[in-house]
Write a structure and sequence with these properties.
Elements (H helix, E strand, L loop, with lengths): L11 H13 L29 H13 L2 H17 L2 H9 L3 H35 L2 H11 L2 H12 L4 H8 L6 H17 L3 H13 L1 H5 L4 H12 L5 H18 L3
Length: 260
């Protein structure tokens, strides 16, 4: 049994773009979470004389600081389990040997955590480059400040908790390429649910920050490129060693629970 899956990557940038753009339109009715917008097309890049400025790497670090990676991995594994439960053969195995799916998913976690670190490091320069394509160093520093603010952390905590990855995992488990559309669908679902759980004061503060800090709304220009990178990251295959490790773990669990 082979599972090609990439644990959740850097969703925070795309998530915040959608959240802030939504909140900017919430000023008149802050008690209601606004609809999540979808930005199409791609803005022209800027002529940036300082693409290697440290502000861009710091922005990526600020994004990472908002993300509870343990929660994200747990959400991804829960999505894997839901896909397994939809497989008749695996569902039958669970019925005969209750808990087998939890054991399989739990055994995969260390491998997927290592894969997540590997692919995140691989794409870090591309993420930094995406920021430099659309934001000035001062704008990058301003956005990083938002991520490190109380409202920025609260926003991301709410959204991350609701990120279920069902669309991306459905393709991953069936060995189909994960598309930008699927990535966007999972992000939009998480943003919608996350905003619904924030109170009117939070929404009003998000809207205030969006209007007072133009760099935040400028993030939407980066969105198409980030979504492409996110889809590429999700399609990064397991290494032969990672794949073999997961395969052996699953085989050993079945062999122990269903001895010949």
């Amino acid at each position: 049994m082979m599972i090609r899956i990439s644990a959740l990557r850097r969703t925070a940038l795309a998530v915040t773009m959608l959240c802030l753009a939504s909140a900017a339109g919430a000023q008149d009715v802050p008690s209601q979470p606004p609809p999540v917008p979808v930005f199409a097309g791609e803005a022209p890049t800027i002529a940036n004389p300082q693409p290697d400025h440290p502000a861009y790497a710091d922005l990526i670090d600020a994004i990472d600081e908002t993300v509870d990676k343990s929660t994200l991995i747990s959400n991804g594994l829960a999505a894997i389990k839901r896909q397994m439960e939809a497989n008749p053969d695996l569902a039958s195995a669970e019925a005969v040997s209750p808990g087998i799916l939890d054991e399989i998913v739990g055994s995969m976690r260390p491998v997927l955590e290592r894969q997540n670190l590997r692919v995140t490091a691989l794409y870090r320069p591309k993420m930094i480059g995406a920021m430099a394509d659309y934001l000035t160093p001062d704008e990058a520093a301003s956005v990083a400040g938002f991520y490190r603010s109380d409202i920025g952390r609260k926003l991301m905590g709410s959204v991350v908790a609701n990120f279920n990855m069902d669309q991306t995992m459905a393709s991953a488990m069936s060995e189909k390429p994960i598309t930008e559309t699927e990535v966007r669908a999972d992000i939009t679902s998480a943003v919608t649910q996350g905003l619904q759980q924030m109170d009117s004061k939070d929404l009003a503060e998000m809207g205030r920050q969006a209007f007072s800090n133009p760099a935040l709304l400028k993030l939407q220009r980066v969105n198409p490129k980030i979504q492409r990178l996110r889809a590429e990251m999700e399609n990064e295959a397991l290494t032969p060693e990672e794949d073999a490790t997961i395969g052996k773990l699953i085989q050993d669990i079945f062999a122990r629970r269903f001895p010949q």
